[in-house]
Structures are given as structure tokens and as C-alpha cells.
Amino acid sequence: MAGATFLLSFTLSFDEFIMAWFLTSFDVTLPVQIWTMVRSGINPTINAVGALVFVFSITLTVVAQWLLTARREAA
Description:
Layout: H1 2-23, H2 30-40, H3 44-74
């Protein structure tokens, strides 16, 4: 189950970038800013933002899984 969650979140993160890239005219969103920073050269800021997004996503997934498991055990 965790592997499927990882693959789904990984796939949806690319979808978020594509949507932000094509739907924003000249507004700079976080995915577009990260893409621009990656193209211009690796910067420690990219690593920090990527780590924060990754930790937040994993934490959210673990909490959701824990709540679902607790609900099943209570029922």
C-alpha cells in the first residue's frame, strides 16, 4: 500500500508542474520556480524546498494511513 501511495504522489507531482507551467500566464508558482532554478543550475535552495515538500508529503501520507488503520480497528 505504501508503494502505491508513493507512486501515485510522485505521478501527481509531475501533473502539478505541467498544470502550473501551461495554465499560468506570467505568474511564477512554486513548481515553475523550482523548474527555472533547476535549469539555471543546482542551488541549495532547490534541495531545501524539495526536502520540505517531500517531508510534508510523507508526513501527510503516514498520518492519513494511521487514521485509516485506527478507524478500521475501531469498527
